[in-house]
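I hope you will forgive my troubling you with a question about protein structure. The full record is reproduced below for your convenience:

——
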Amino acid sequence: MLKATLRWWARVSFLERTLWVLLLFGFISRLLVASYGIFENDFQEDIRWAESIMKYGLADSYGLSGTDRLPGGKLYILWALGAIKNLSGVSEAVLYKLPANISDLVLAIFLFRFIKVRWGEEKGLITALLYFYSPIVWHISALWGQYDSVLILLLLILLVALFKNWLGITASVLAFTFQFKPQAVFVVPLILLYLWQTRSGAVNFIKRTLKVLGIAIGVIWILSVPFVPNNNAHKADLGKLLSPWELTWTKLEAAHGAYPYGAVNAFNLWGFLKTNWELDSQTWVGVTYRGWGSMLFGVSIMLVIYKLWRRGKPLELEDYGFALGLIFLFGSTFLTRVHERHILPFFFLYLLSVWSAAYRLKIYLLLTILAVMNSWFSYGWLLESPWTESNGSVMSLLSGLVVLGALFELGKIFTRDTFKK
């Protein structure tokens, strides 16, 4: 094993060796700072979930919690972490941050290999380090202890499977990712577009679409079954069959209604309009804030899909990834009820095509700075010591800069360098 490793090390280039050294250094550094920067409420909730599942099982622990979290998804990861904790003496801070930190490591390696093929090794190294050492990624994964990087990895696996025409895997990963975080539905229009662009006739498109839909719904049912409360035993057979979907729908409604505000500490359009923690049921010219946000986001998605549709063949993974990155950017900017962390997938997906146009690196760095300021504001707000006033002039100004960045990208959709033929 050691000899094989040394032979491999001798074969790889200097830049690739540099990458592995820096990634190893960064990963160890993340483990060393694991006990710092934790928001205890969220972190302890994950630990309680894992312990509860290990003690009571999936169904009973889920029924006792009253959570708005969807069955499946992250809960399966916490179940595995709880089992590892029982078998090892790993500290909770290190263990429960491992999924996000490992995801970031895998994503950085993918970026290097992907960008190297298209733009060369030097840019591959820069791109991988831009992500892995990004201060916003470090804050969310290595310090705060959130699992948004796991969502990004799942979305990447989904896109890769889609481009290999592994529709069963695509649908299965979509189902798990949706249960992990419901905003995974942002990828659905791109899946439909891919199925349309690779069709061999309308009937073929319909068949493959129904296949993906059927498998996704079926996997959601399978993954939800273990969480159905045991007290539904008295139900008729049809009721038992429907229970997993009913449970998922109930929790989805609860999750969507948990934060009915314009912004939830996010620097976006609604932060700019000073509606942080203010109800999004308020109206402007007869339309609720939520309605305006949904319309703006809907128009943005249609523009992205239209431009990608007009691109035609050959299809490129980086175009789809870049498009999904824009969708997450527009979603976090225009939708109401958005948390500051909902923009994080943008900071990986955008990098898949960051070298296609000279302006993109500048936009990426600007939005990174703004996201770091937003994340620290939100973290401080939760600890009752934010660095700036909620709905104050500074929050509004910084939110306005995020909106300008999103509008700039929206305008660039119709330039030739957005999705090159």
